[in-house]
Amino acid sequence: MIEKLILKTLFLSALLITANPAFSELTRDQITDKSQPVWRDFTINLVHQVTIDIPFGGLNRLLCLFNKTEYRKWANLQSDADTPAYAYLTNIDERACGLNMRDEPAVVRATQLNPDALVRVEYWNATNAGALTSLTQDIHVIEEATAANPVGIMTIDQQLYNQNDQKMLLRQHSESSRVDDSTIQYQSSLYLDQFVINQSTPQGQSEEYYATNLYFEEGDAGYGTIVNKVFNPVPTGSELYPAGIPHIAGATNIAFSADYIRYERYLDLYIAGNFVQSKLLIESACVSRSVSWSYVPNFGYGVYTADGDRNAETFSAEFTNANNDVVQVQVAGFSVNPPVACRSLLDGSVVAAEPCSGQAAATTVPAFDVPDLTTVVGASGPEYIVRVLKPRKVYSQVDTSFCEGLVVRDTLPTPSHLFFEGNNIITAVPAAGAVLVNDFASDPDLDPFYAGKVYSPIEDSDADGVQNYADMFPEDGTKSADLDYDGVPDESDVSDDRVKFDNLNFDYPDAIEYITPSMYQGE
After folding, report:
1. Beta strands in 218-313 (DSSP E)
2. Exposure check for the chain: N or C terminus, fewer CB within 10 A?
């Protein structure tokens, strides 16, 4: 995330407890209907210092995913100009990249017109209309990320949408370009529906927007500005993204080296469209780019009933932890509320049992985490499953002397919502054959769809005349194609369940963004 962006992987650990037998009856595996929320709700790693993570963490997750698709291996594989570049099925462990959108394979298409041309990699995370949400990515690579240039020279687009409601949930566009031999400019825009952060929040109720303008210099150092806006019409009386007056907005100016980030964060606060705070400096700190600790916020959990649906009730509950202690928590709908404590931003240690009044470099957060897949028991007896969906990483806040020499500059101009225009992703998923990349080949139990199997692309495993890369059923010689990925071969399939999304639903060319006082105002 905030660490160096050299295609490294980030590991999301799922902690399991040894439960008391009385509390161990209900498990997610017992809910066989995989369409239930307990199976479908997705996991994403968050960062406590969210604003400064926007340009680093989001890019790092994308680069991690593209790296794991092994696109270098398959781009321009064919030397015959009459054979089109093909899409292939890849089953990668997205959790290693800080997110887990679905538990089934994705389709990747990597194309290159000639050895000197840029590489285009497209990634479709959901393949048919049975998917509630679909994640699609498109990257144009001119120069890959390296130690000297950690953002590469590339254009990246990403979108997450609910195809049933035709609702955009997340949209990101970024561009990196060379200013001179030693400086790279990185610009990005990110739109986010709050549903992505908390699946119990209705879609379209609250929205966020972030815009970035950074300059990377030699040695993975640089400076820049990140703008943030939160749209919530209930307290503001305004519209949503992009033309509404944001409820909360601001700008964060940063200066960074390979090891640390120094930042100053400014806030603009509105209620019913009126200023409450304007250009208020609310935070100035130095954080490490590599040292961190973590916690799960209250909204970072998912609490599910015995049928796998999202819980909507409020009650007291308990579970047995790894030390065989019975622990009390409060459940409020989808959230879990353990006791809070004042914890150090340096290492997460408890500074005080009460909220952090008067404590420097500390934050009030839950005193402990409820481990993933814990079974909790309500006061009246029913059991519930708790999933950890949004763990939060905290990059260690250190003494400002560690950031000596890092100079935070004035606010820079950042992209507007028009940065998205003309960059819509192709949502129609191309036909693909057998899985060519499978992260779970060494652990088939984690792969319910292909049992860890992976196939050689230019072999014909079932001798039906169709090579594996184009054969959706590589071990069945009687069938080979499944254009809509529903498991029914095209020869006997009368449906067309391919993912469809109308990008025009997210075009706002006539909107005028509201510029708040903390943002760049021009000359």
Report:
1. 221-231, 248-256, 260-271, 274-295, 301-304
2. C
Question: What 3-state class would DSSP assign to 104?
Answer: coil
Instruction: Give the separation between CA 139 and CA 174, rounded to whole angstroms.
Output: 10
Is residue 319 one of the residues assigned to a domain? yes
Whole-model pTM: value is: 0.88
Q: Determine the average pLDDT of the residues in 475-487.
A: 90
* DSSP secondary structure code for residue 105 in this structure: -
Contact criterion met (CB below 8 Å) for 324 and 23? no
Dig out the tokens for 360 from the structure. Answer: 């420097």
CA–CA dist 123, 101 (Å, integer) = 13
Q: Is 60 left (phi over 0), alpha (psi -120 to 50) or beta?
A: alpha
Q: Are 247 and 194 in contact (CB under 8 A)?
A: no
Structure tokens at 446: 């984690």
d(CA 471, CA 480): 5
Which amino acid is residue 424, in one-letter code?
N
Instruction: Pick the closest to residue 244 from 223, 273, 280, 215 (CA basis).
Output: 273
User: Vertex 516, ends 262 and 197: CA angle to 5°?
Assistant: 65
In which domain, by residue range, is 323 found?
A: 17-40+297-389
Q: Is residue 254 part of a domain?
A: no
Instruction: Tell me whether residue 166 is in a domain.
Output: no
Burial of 146 (0-12, 13-18, 19+ CB in 10 A): exposed
Cα gap 476→492, rounded to integer Å? 15
**Is pLDDT at 194 greater than 50 in this prediction?**
yes
The two structure tokens encoding residue 179: 């200013």
Q: What is the pLDDT of residue 426?
A: 87
Give the CA distances from residue 437 to residues 8, 158, 262, 417, 461, in Å, rounded to whole numbers and listed in that order. Answer: 18, 21, 40, 36, 16
Q: Total domain count for the chain? A: 1
Q: In the structure, what pLDDT confidence band is assigned to residue 345 with cuts at 50, 70 and 90?
A: very high
pLDDT of residue 12: 27
CA torsion through residues 88, 93, 95, 98, sign = negative
pLDDT in tens, 215-260: 999 878 999 999 999 999 887 778 899 999 999 999 999 999 999 9
Buried b (16+ CB within 10 A) or exposed e, 61-90: bbbbbbbbbbbeebbeeeeeeeeebbbbbb
Q: Are strands 374-378 and 314-320 parallel, antiparallel or unpaired?
A: antiparallel
Report d(CA 54, CA 181) in Å as an integer. Answer: 25
Return the CA Rg of the chain. Answer: 24
Specify if 510 maps to a domain: no
144 near 128, Cβ under 8 Å? no
